[in-house]
Amino acid sequence: MSILQGQYTHNLPQIAYCAQEVKLHEEQAALNSGTTLSELMQRAGHALFELVRNRAVKNILIFTGKGNNAGDGFMLAKRCLHAQIHVTVCALFEPSLLKGDAAEAYQLFCRSGGRVVSLRSCIDHSYDAIVDAVFGTGFRGALPEPVKEAFNYFKSSKAWKLAVDIPSGVNGTTAEVSPDSFQADTTLTFIALKQGMLTGNAPNLCGELLLADLGIADAFAELSHTNCCYPGGKYLRSLRPVRAADSYKNQCGHVLLVGGGKGMAGAIRLAAEACLRTGAGLVSVATHPENQSAVLHGRYELMVHGVAVAAELEALLNKADVVVIGPGLGQDAWAKKMYAAVKKYQGLVVCDADGLNLLAQSHLPWHRAILTPHFGEAKRLLGNSTFNTSKRFEMAEQLSAEYAACIVLKGPGSLIVDGKRININRSGCSAMASAGMGDVLSGIIAGLLAQGLSRFEAATLGVYIHGLAAEQAARDGQLGTLASDLFVHIRGIMG
């Protein structure tokens, strides 16, 4: 249901769209709702003004461009004038380039006593709010030099920075980010969420994300199509396995984790304990014989096997419901033998770390697998070093198609892609930039698979639990949070 006209919300929807999809259908959605694009611009200006007023802003600088985003900025500026807020509008493009509703918004601002100034006229003044109303949904490519110059002048300003719809420099469809993009503290986006704002470097530039649907959300949803979801915590928690009162361990799945080459016991131990904490009934580890006692020490619930040859591993594979391959595996002769044996396994597999690096050498499909690469591993899997780090949707979809697998492309706003379905994760924090975090994720996903979740569900819920556990662990301090600190929180989240 639509938010009241002119209002905004912190509660974001669970569906996201390409920016082009919003641009394509916004006018028809307005007409179907009994309104016009001109009225939508007024509503956008009102929502922006309510946000500014709630911040008790006294002195505001608004950068404007040459499209409808500028029109929203002029509507905000007009309202600020009427509220006796000191407003400075810096036009980064000639107002004569404005057309249609944006040109009318500019005229309304001027008739209210406002005027636009050059960048030179405003750089020596201080403001308590700076607003980016330059581009919006139409941005792609690189920022023009005058826009970069303006943003850089105020980059170090302590003022609250507000982006109108999308921070200028962020592509709302692809998540590509131009150098010197506007760094917002808050972004108020309109009509619907744009997928490119939710992953990669874009969330950092958006800051706090708010939505004003301008009263046309229902009409827009009827016209539009998307395969991209942004699932919330309430829905994701509903996917957690429910254990019957008379359950026993063999009903809760048996996971075999394969990894830990000579001298590398830590990663496989982290993955295995995460699997236990997620609720798997039985967890076995196949590791290099030299690591057996190290992996077992202090976690005696694990069944740890020192495996030297493929034949020994094959016997363990026959008993497993789910297999994890890769944490601490290495790429030596022993690792390649273990990998080759697992590649023949016909059940569900989670492949991470060196498992991905070995897979990248063959580029063979892996049906029934979940692959969990970070950006560098994704590039190796695609055999392509030309990808920009922001082209995350393209990378994840291509990986899913090429390997016939479910892909978890890790990073801020991790993408979970299985065929045409895309989920964007909304949990996590910077404390996750720590060794072993990926190993813990592999164990969580495997534990969920073992308890009966589908491939796509297990990957989506696993990534969410992983990020949420990290958020909770980091309450004691972002820096120095360890992967093993997540275990107690994983258990609590699983309930």
TrEMBL record:
(6S)-NADPHX binds at G136, T137, G138, F139, R140, G141, A142, D165, A267, G328, H374, D439. AMP binds at K410, G411, P412, G413, S414, G438. Residues 232-495 form the YjeF C-terminal domain. K(+) binds at N69, D132, S168. It comes from the Bacteria. Keywords: ATP-binding, Isomerase, Lyase, Metal-binding, Multifunctional enzyme, NAD, NADP, Nucleotide-binding, Potassium. Transmembrane segments: none annotated. In the C-terminal section; belongs to the NnrD/CARKD family. Belongs to the NnrD/CARKD family. This is Bifunctional NAD(P)H-hydrate repair enzyme. The gene is nnrD.
